[in-house]
Amino acid sequence: MSTGTETVLAAPDAEVPPTVAGRVRKKLTSRTASAISLVIALLWTVPTLGVLISSIRPENEIKSNGWWNFFSNPQFTLENYEQVLFGSRSASGGLAGYFVNSLVITIPSVLFPLAFCALAAYALAWTRFRGRDWIYIGIFALQIVPLQMALIPLLSFFNYGVSLGGFQLLPAWDLDGPAKFITVWFAHTCFALPLGIFLLHNFMAELPGDLVEAARVDGATHAKIFRSIILPLIVPALASFAIFQFLWVWNDLLVALIFAGGPKNAPLTVRLAELAGNRGNEWQRLTAAAFVSIIVPLTVFLSLQRYFVRGLLAGSVKG
Amino acid sequence: MNFDFTAEAPKLMMLLYGVIAFAAVVGLLLLVLDVLPARKDRWIALGLLAPAGLLLLVGLVVPAIRTMILAFMNADSTEFVGLENFLWIFTDKNSGMLPDFGATPVQYGVLLSTLLWVLLVPTVSTAVGLVYAVMVDRSRFESFAKSLVFMPMAISFVGAGIIWKFVYEYRQEGADQIGLLNQLVVAMGGTPQQWLLDGPWNTLFLIVVLVWIQAGFAMVVLSAAIKAIPADIVEAARIDGVTAGQMFWRVTIPSIRPALVVVLVTISIGTLKVFDIVRTMTGGQFGTSVVANEMYTYSFRADERGKGAALAVLLFLFVIPIVIYQVRLMRRRRLEGAR
């Protein structure tokens, strides 16, 4: 816990924790500290709890009295969930279909950037060529470009292709039905690259160089080094970027609104925003719908929190 | 039950195609790498960077440049109009961008509202995150306590919007309140309020939602920074007999300043772009709109591409000073460190 001198010096009141935070907490009297942290913890959880409890209460109960009455008068139903998931589309939700859309949008939108970022980060960290640092700085700088800057031209690129001076250089994508998902994947992949390359590069550049050098001396190709040395080592970094990207895509509204188009391809967030706008007082549906959209990212997040935190720290503190 | 599996099958096929395409692309890239001469780093690098580079060019760089051009063109991008779109933002009284303090209730306008978001969200979230990180540090339930505050980060802005809309829900005076906030107000003898409708305070109630989401991020990063403060600094201060307040302001804060700056900057940049919360909770009505929401409305709802592009460029311009500040700070610290 501490070195010998410190222990001696700390002897008079050895109970004092050795960190700054510990000392501050001690001095503020732990009662105030507990009270403050309890208030914050309650503020940060009770709103979600209210929605969860409401989602399993009967409609007339939700609309006539507060969810906290559930504790004195518990009434339980799954009807709200049945309605929002499987009810006929226009009236109540039809969220099951949108749930599938969210999955179809999210999975490839995580896989593609993961692969492209890993390859690019490897090139920037472990191959030598002129201008490498400039390319890295350029990609790093792209992080600050708000994605709003790309939306209008990207949409017209998908819809009308590229023409220069009346000459059609690239045709319109003309995608219909399920194929429209491709444009959403494309957009999400592009927008994920700057942060992804930055995160993975940071991680790869810190791997011991001797490993790679030794393999190269033995005549291993870059492809082999990447596959058999680098890839196994960067699994934690890949995991944290994958979680980031998963949460980002699953929770995204803007890109989906613009590129997914129409109820056939729109993800949960789009439907949820629609419900909140059109049926703002149908709390029995809104609460259940909100929970359907929250449950997947929450599960992923809580089970893989460790990797997520690691990625967060690597991305923010080192940068 | 009304779930038609046959309607979902084509989408799932599409997902399958997507995953197959992914496997094919990755396999092909690695195959090409194997074939390329091993000693020529330049060609290998080109092969590795090509997909990412191409996508960045097509999906980000070229569109961003085009947006800058569109910002100087008219609604359907057929002719140049000079600075007209920007003049509209900054001088036109009817654009809704400028504050109107004569109106009742006071109208902040889109620009001032956005500024309010950018000032309040980072500072309040960081303050809450810092206090919480200090309070729960080394306590018995630390990791559980942190998970509670961290959890909203997994919730979408849309979901958080609905959660808080429910907290703010209004029922007439005398009726049973179903929103938590009005219930508390009534319990303390007040009259229930329409929190999201009545300006100019409604913007603050939207800001609360983003603070709620971002505080967890601040807490996690700052908590890690606090744990990294060297124990001997703390010991030295303790021997000098500092009080808790001195310890916090003179030891903790200076030691974690780099992390504080990163947190503040990251949250500010994120806040500028926030759109979903406003969209879900008020749709930008009742004087709550922000630049990102107007950008969406003008570009994709009102078919005013010139104005939409100008607003996007404005967002970009707002980010630049924040980034310059961070870079300068980083460079100064590096110089100090070298000395």
UniProtKB/TrEMBL annotation, chain A:
Q: Which domain of life is it from?
A: Bacteria
Q: How does it sit in the membrane?
A: Multi-pass membrane protein
Record-linked InterPro entries: MetI-like, MetI-like_sf
- Outline the extent of the ABC transmembrane type-1 domain: 99-304
- Gene3D superfamilies, sorted: MetI-like
**Keyword Oxidoreductase on entry:** no
Q: Which Pfam families match?
A: BPD_transp_1 (PF00528)
Q: What are the record keywords, sorted?
A: Cell membrane, Membrane, Transmembrane, Transmembrane helix, Transport
Gene Ontology cellular-component annotations: plasma membrane
Its transmembrane ranges are 33-56, 98-122, 134-162, 182-204, 225-250, 286-304
Where located? Cell membrane
Example GO biological process term? Answer: transmembrane transport
Q: Per the record's keyword annotation, is Glycosyltransferase included, yes or no? A: no
Indicate the family of this protein: Belongs to the binding-protein-dependent transport system permease family.
UniProt-recorded name of the protein: Sugar ABC transporter permease
Tell me which species this is from: Catellatospora coxensis
From TrEMBL, chain B:
Q: List, alphabetically, the Gene3D superfamilies matched.
A: MetI-like (1.10.3720.10)
Q: Where in the cell is it found?
A: Cell membrane
Question: The ABC transmembrane type-1 domain covers which part of the protein?
Answer: 111-328
The superkingdom listed in its UniProt entry is Bacteria
Q: Which residues cross the membrane?
A: 12-36, 43-65, 115-136, 148-167, 204-226, 247-272, 308-327
Its record classes its membrane topology as: Multi-pass membrane protein
Task: Return one Gene Ontology term, BP aspect.
Answer: transmembrane transport
Q: Where does it primarily localize?
A: membrane
Give the GO cellular component terms, alphabetically: plasma membrane
Spell out the protein name for this chain.
ABC transmembrane type-1 domain-containing protein
Keywords annotated in UniProt? Cell membrane, Membrane, Transmembrane, Transmembrane helix, Transport
**Which SUPFAM superfamilies does the record match to this protein?**
MetI-like
| Pfam families membership | BPD_transp_1
Organism of origin is Catellatospora coxensis
Q: Which InterPro entries match?
A: ABC_transporter_permease, MetI-like, MetI-like_sf
Q: Tell me its family.
A: Belongs to the binding-protein-dependent transport system permease family.
